[in-house]
């Protein structure tokens, strides 16, 4: 018997192609879902884009038959249909004046008719209510990763001390067979003395371990304080790695190290023409008119965390007396060396020869990340930073956000690098708070 998957509105707003993600089963779209999509279709946001795409897909399917009776899908062997009935039984205890409850009523009716029903929603409360009604509920899983097994970007390898010494002398070492990733880092640990270690990098070209190119480098005057930060510096300063994801909790130095490397590459080495820094304004595509002032003044309010990091970096590299930190930053912005931009305005652009940092990327969906990364032009580098445990988007979590999805999907690509930063270096209090609270 075919299963009946009842899709909630938020699933199609998250990914319109979810219509075709349930193989040879029946996908049911309650009429109230169409009503909700209609409310979003005029928005100049990703929600609006997905609403319009879902509507276009359903309109295209009409040529294959009646959507009310069900249209067969050739590529999956399944059926998609629209359910026009949304009546709640008195026994359910749910109010009829909310669309969410009427959508759930379709699942209840089909279950009572003997169908094997699964309610698919990215709304946690919606899934809880479905469960309370005896309806099996699930999140939309297609673009989720197992965060408990999330790729760290490095691993430990135990070996003989003489092999570690040989690596340190030759800066290369054959490796035992294993499933190594391009740009994965290896902590070589002495079997007899765990304090005897060396950090190496896997080379897909040679199939072995090679030494770090930027070991000991202090981008913009800052030094990495731990293993993960050292890996981050190596990836950020390597021009061959065009996309880097830095994932970690608050205080691990993600944004600070990315900014330091960007300034080093733009202002000192002149590898890139500009350092472009952006953060999502929730939701992506939403205007920033709720803040007072001009566009630049609004951005200044939103970019305070970036300015805090820039002020620290300017303090580290301050060489001229009589010039304030604020004037140094204003000079970088006025000269075009540093540009601050809302993600709202990045779509549609082509961005060549720039070092691009997207902060707080955990608040973006996989499709939004794809939209942003596809803006990268010739000879540009993009860095995505974020904390998967601090997500403001109500329909994303540590496993389904665009940042972790990107890291998991691209880990086998040679132009991609990733590291999971675990240790907070902001302060003792910040470290305790990140771990204990």
Give the structure's gist in a few sentences.
This protein has helices at about 10-15, 30-40, 45-60, 100-110, 125-130, 160-170, 225-235, 255-270, 295-300, 305-315, 325-335, 365-375, 400-410, 430-435; strands at about 5, 25-30, 70, 80-85, 115-120, 135-140, 155-160, 170-175, 185-190, 195-205, 210, 245-250, 275-280, 340, 355-360, 380-385, 415-420. The chain has about 425 residues and is an alpha/beta fold.
Secondary structure layout:
Layout: E1 4-7, H1 9-14, E2 26-30, H2 31-40, H3 46-61, E3 71-72, E4 79-83, H4 99-112, E5 117-120, H5 124-132, E6 136-138, E7 154-159, H6 161-170, E8 172-174, E9 185-190, E10 197-203, E11 208-210, H7 227-237, E12 243-248, H8 254-268, E13 274-279, H9 295-302, H10 304-316, H11 325-334, E14 338-342, E15 354-358, H12 366-373, E16 381-386, H13 402-410, E17 416-421, H14 428-436
Helix pairs in contact: 2-3, 2-4, 7-8, 8-10, 10-11, 12-13
- Summed up, the helix count is 14
CATH class of the largest domain: Alpha Beta
Shape: globular
Structural Rg: 25 Å
Summed over residues and divided by their number, the pLDDT gives a mean of 89
Count of beta strands? 17
Number of domains as seen in the coordinates: 2
> Distance between the terminal alpha carbons, to the nearest Å?
47 Å
Task: Give the strand content.
Answer: 15-25%
CATH topology annotation of the largest domain = Rossmann fold
User: What would CATH call the architecture of the largest domain?
Assistant: 3-Layer(aba) Sandwich
Strand order of the largest sheet: 3-4-2-1-5-6
Poorly predicted parts = 283-288
Percentage of residues assigned to helices? 25-40%
Largest sheet: 6 strands, mixed
How would you describe the oligomerization state of the chains in this entry? single chain
Specify the CATH homologous superfamily of the largest domain.
P-loop containing nucleotide triphosphate hydrolases
Structural class: alpha/beta
